[in-house]
Write a structure and sequence with these properties.
Elements lengths: L1 E5 L5 H10 L3 E5 L3 H8 L10 H10 L3 E4 L2 H6 L3 E4 L14 H14 L6 E5 L7 H14 L7 E5 L9 H6 L4 E4 L3 H10 L7 E4 L1 H31 L4 H8 L23 H14 L5 H4 L1 H18 L4 E5 L14 H11 L3 E5 L10 H10 L11 H6 L3 E4 L4 H9 L5 E4 L4 E2 L1
Parallel strand pairs: 1-2, 1-4, 2-3, 4-5, 5-6, 7-8, 9-10, 9-11, 11-12
Antiparallel strand pairs: 12-13
Helix pairs in contact: 1-3, 5-6, 9-10, 13-14
Length: 425
Amino acid sequence: MKIAVFGLGYVGAVTAACFAKEGHLVIGVDINKHKVDAINKGHSPIIEKGLGELICKCVKNKRFSATTSATEAVLKTDIGMVCVGTPSMESGAINIEHLKIAVREIGEALNGLGRFYSIVIRSTALPGTIEDILTPILEQSSGRKSGRDFGICANPEFMREGNSLEDFYKPAKTIIGTAGKKEKEILEKLYSFTKTTLIATDIKTAEFSKYLDNTFHGLKISFANEMAGMAKKMGVEPIKAMEIFCKDRISNISPRYLKPGFSFGGSCLPKDIRAVLYKARTEDIDIPLIGSILESNDIQIDDAARMILKTGKRKIGLLGLSFKPGTDDLRESQFVRLAEILIGKGLKLRIYDKNVSMAKLVGTNKAYINKEIPYISSLLCRTIDEAVKGSEVIVIGHGLKEFRDVAKKYYKGRIIIDLCIHKAE
């Protein structure tokens, strides 16, 4: 294929050289003449392990050249990959001016092109950038129509500086966000040399995926550092502790607990996090990330209450009361806390949880619920039907099939709020 790569920095130079190595004819485009001249002489414009040798080889083989002219590059290629930087501004917003300039120049070049052209956005940009900002710029500057005369898609990069060549050839994932089949087929062919399956999704999800990854990576680093500080203060070797932590591939290093849903509760997580925070205060250790966990968890409960109150309905059927399915443990249950808020707002609740029976509750479990909702017995229903029949809103707390089936059965004339999947119907 014939590919133009716009922006010859850490992402663009690697992208261009690697595709040239795979036999494609690549033209790099950059406004910086020094970068262009360096590449045309077979030199790398950046420091990246193995890149200098690769560029030298590709230039000698006449597979890779560079220019300052976007028009020249577009007219000689079929695909334009945009890899320009989107740096932070003082406000925290990203600066997409170079991105807008690049696509405008591509659009102007498309004006004189009598064939279909594919534009691939590799630059990191927030969801909505491609569809709401870049596509209109392309259509206006080219006088052509997206989907008919040109295609545009998101193909975020996940390369780590210093390991970029390895990450390019052995990516954890390759994502394409597109509204059409043509770009998907083109990129599948383009990335056929990798063993990673291409993940096709919509454009906004693809744009968001880069932010999801990087935010999580920052969160992991901050978590490890804050807990290491705690460990040292308590005489624990942090490296040894984290090595043991990482041995758990079922709960710790896994997809578990990464499915969006409702807040957490129970007798373990809240209690243990509070203990960590208490110890941090007594030892004068600053752990802002861990300190925000319970606050963030409370926000989920408050948001759910607002969602229910916003319906304007007064009769609520709550399916699930214990902190998770398969137990009768009500201690610090997020659903008990939600019920308290709704009752406090004057709403009438009918609650069903097959595992919760006041007659069978004992010890601290019984003491907790009697303290939080003393009249809980009058709210509990013996059957699901009893809980939902008189309700105007059905709130699914536990993600059980039987609850969703009943909600579907009685959905007519009722509002269904499924807290497990962030969705109201």
